[in-house]
Structure formats: C-alpha cells, structure tokens
Amino acid sequence: MSLLAKNRNYRLLFSASAISNLGDGVSALAFPWLASLITRDPFLIAMVAFATRLPWFLFSIPAGVITDRGDRQRLMVMADLLRLLLTSGVVALIVTLPDLPPVSGAGWYILALSGLAFLLGSAEVVRDNAAQTALPSVVESNDLERANGQIWSIEQIMGSFIGPPLAGFLIAYAVPAPFALDAITFALAAWVVWLITVPPRSTPVRRSLFVEAKEGFIWLWDHPKLLRLAVMLGFSNMLSIMALTILVLFSQEILNLSGFGHGLLLTAGAAGGVVGGLLCPGIAQRLGAERSLQLVLLLFPTMFFVIFLTSNVWVVAAALFVEMFAGLLWNVVTVSYRQRLIPDDLLGRVNSIYRFFGWGLMPVGALLAGGVVALAEPDLGREAALRLPYVIAGCIAVILGIYGFLRLRL
C-alpha cells in the first residue's frame, strides 16, 4: 500500500503542501511580472525579490524557536491565514494603480509591493519551517526519503508546473486575478492542515529566545558536515535567485515571451523537479549521499553558462530542467539526512539555523542581480548586461563545486 493511501495525516499534509504551493507558484510569476509592468528598472524589480527573500535572513532563527515551543499545526494554519489577508492587500494595491505599463510614481508602488512581499515572506518562513519540522511526526523514519521526494514532487508540479502558466494566463486576463487565486489557495491550505491529527508533544520548558537559539547553534556547530551543507546551500540559493530575478526581463527582452510564455518556460524547471522527485530517491539510494551531491555540483554550473550563451527558448528551458533536477537531488539527500540526525526537541531550531545559512543569502542574490545589470548597462548595453549575472553565477558555482568535491564527506 502506498504511503499516501495508508497514512491519513501524511495525505493531509501532502495535500496542504500541494494547495499552498499552487499559490506560491502563481506568486512566483505574478509578483515579478507585476513589478515589470510598473517599472522597467532592473534594480527596482530586484527590490521586490529582495523583500520576498529577506525574511529568511531576519526571521529564520526566531521562527525555529517558535516552532519548537509551539503547536506546529497551529503555526501552519495561522501563517496561511495571514498570507490570505496579505494577498488580498496586493489585490487592493493593484486596484489603486493607474494604467499599466509602466506607471508614474513607480517607486512608491514598488515600495508598497515590496512591503507586502516582505510580510508574505515572513509568514512563509514560519509556515515552511513548521511544515518541514512536522513531517517526521507524521511518517516513519524509513519513509522519510519517499515522503520528502513525494512532497518535493507535488510542490514542483503545483508551484512550478501548474502555477506559473496559470498565473501568466490569469494576469493577461486581469492583473488582480492571480492574487485572488492565491488568497483562495491559502484559505484551503489552512483548512486542510487543521484536519491533521498531530501526535501530542511534551511541552518544553521555555527559556529566553537567545538561550534556546544558542542551543541550536551549538548543536549545528558540533556537526560540521551539516554546517558545511548549510553554507553551500546558501551560496547555491544566492546564485539561483540571481538567475531567477533577471529571468523575468531576460524572457521579455531577449526571448520575446509574453507572461503566459514566461510561465510555460518556468514549467520546464518544474518538469525537472517532477522527474527529480520521482527518480532522485532511487538515485540517492544507488549512488549514496556523497556521490549524489557530487553529481549535483557537476550539473549546477551548467544552467548559468547555457543561459548566458543562448537566445533560444528551448535551450533555456533545458537548462532550467537540469538545474531543478539537480536541486531536487540535493534536497532529497540533505533534508532526509538532517531530519534523521537532528533530535526532535531541537529539530525546529536547528532546521531554522540551517535555513538561515541556506536561505539567508537569497536577498543578497536578488540585489546583486539588479545591481549588476544596472551598473553594467551603460557600458555593455542592455542585452549584455542582462546576460552578465549568468556568467558571474556560473563562475561562482564552479568554485563552489570544487570546494564540495574537496570537503563534502557524508
């Protein structure tokens, strides 16, 4: 019997992840596309991506303490309800916009959009940390790879395969439409999570946030392999966000894609995620953890160099497929590894500190992308400036790969 068929709580958590990530996938296209309708300034567009990712740097560690202290199910429900309200705020903002594109006073609208994106990202930090921390409570230890692979697959299907083209269609129909759909998905996700029966946990003794966070830091510091994985993930995510931030302009100005076409392009990456979710647990079992991660480090720079060199949409799509497949293999190996290794009473805090390192550099990547293009454009021209972040990311990824081959020993 399949894991989904035999385990009701896992089935509900899986369903909530599917619904919530449909909303995230719609947002992944709708937010940057809306920003590009307001302004063509790459730095202002990067500000929206920066605001979305900044909470992972600021709030990852406090979110981990909250996750270990509190009811993880309740945290997920409250976070999704908050995202429902904030997404409704985006709809209200759009209604106030003058004719698109672009608009006068774009800076103020980008500032408001960035503020809403920041608050949405803050709720996402709490929700995602609680969800990943709760998974070992609803599945057996020997089912973790399978559960993680299935959840990552459905997240890619909904968040990257269905969400972006749906967002492109909706935003072409009416700019507020994708955000209205977001609000509905967050409401449904909150309801499904509320139906889960989570096994009771002993109530931990509460101390200061600093003391509890310090325990997580000490535990992670005493496990240098895990710390090394977190730092490498941070640089990898920084490079991925550099590429993704500029991709919205690259699609419009070099690949000549519409919003719907850009959404379809993102589904190529999703297809890599779906295939990866199905195949990567078996690949990890066959190759072992260390060799699997080495394969990822060989594949990762490819995507950046290919996009730098091409103007062909099919080649870009193939590069995104490879990048997402590699990312899924990395996640299946490393997430299962740390879920087994970290004690349950520390899981929320260590997960959050891991994500502080692993996700905290993403806002830096967004700002770097916008800054590089803005600074390079006067001397290199628009097209060369839009390509420059990809060659920079590829070179850094090669250095990261060399480090991984030398230092990763699982």
What is the compact description of this entry?
With 410 residues, this protein is mainly α. It is 85% helix and 0% strand. Helix 3 (42-58) runs antiparallel to helix 14 (344-359).
Topology diagram in text:
Blueprint: H1 3-6, H2 8-38, H3 42-58, H4 60-69, H5 72-95, H6 106-138, H7 144-173, H8 177-194, H9 209-221, H10 224-253, H11 259-287, H12 289-309, H13 313-341, H14 344-359, H15 362-380, H16 382-407
Tell me about this structure.
The longest helix is centred in the first third of the chain and has 33 residues, at 106-138. Helix 4 (60-69) runs parallel beside helix 6, helix 9 crosses helix 14 and helix 10 packs antiparallel against helix 16 (382-407). The protein has helices at 3-6, 8-38, 42-58, 60-69, 72-95, 106-138, 144-173, 177-194, 209-221, 224-253, 259-287, 289-309, 313-341, 344-359, 362-380, 382-407. It has 410 residues and is an all-alpha fold. The protein contains 16 helices and no strands. It is globular. It has one domain (3-195, 208-407): MFS general substrate transporter like domains (Growth Hormone, Chain: A).
